[in-house]
Amino acid sequence: MLPLAARAPEGLPLIYVGSLAKLLSPGIRLGYALAPEPLLRRMAEARAAIDRQGDAPLKAALAEMIRDGDLGRHARKARRDLLAALLGEHLAGRATFDLPAGGLALWLRYEGASAEAWAKAAGQAGLALLPGTRFALEGPQPQAFRLGYAALDEGQIARAVEILARSVPG
Q: What are the pLDDT digits (tens) for 93-116?
């Protein structure tokens, strides 16, 4: 689900504020704000009045991580690891997967009933899945799902795995 800022009508002034604490570490007390330039200047002035020193080395390191794309890769890896942990916890013995070294998705393989049946049951519970058969042009049809995680937050990943586990056929 996209933030409200993504749905705002063109030209509507808005403020979007976030934190990096969950992504990096709770001890990292850095956030960000997107807003019209005059408002950002006033916010920065107020922030400087509250905390004149800040953590310049941490801010510089984070800025470099953003510029280099390291922060985005870290976010995807954290989501991948969460998805893998939850799948292992909730679907052990019922489905298998290999942890990808990179990318934006993993393949969950199912050896029981058809992936089509599982996708239908998950869809009725509110989770849209495409069975691996939709990705295969020829050859053996995989009983699998391609699970994308890059655009999901922690809560969405947990909810998706919960629905997957509840909707296993048979």
A: 888 998 887 778 888 988 777 888
DSSP 8: P
62/96 same-domain check: no
Among 56, 98, 86, 105, smallest CA distance to 164 is for 86
H or E element: which one contains 164?
Answer: helix 154-166
In a domain, 60, yes or no: yes
Contact 108, 80 (CB under 8 A): no
Per-residue tokens: 105: 């998705």
**Single pTM value for the model:** 0.66
| Residue numbers of the domain that contains 25 | 14-68
CA–CA separation, 31 vs 89, rounded Å? 32
The pair of structure tokens assigned to 127 is: 């989770």
Q: Look-up: residue for tokens 């990292």?
A: 28
Query: Does residue 35 share a domain with residue 100?
Result: no
Interatomic CA distance for residues 116 and 167, integer angstroms: 12
Torsion of CA 68, 47, 14, 39, to 10 degrees: -110
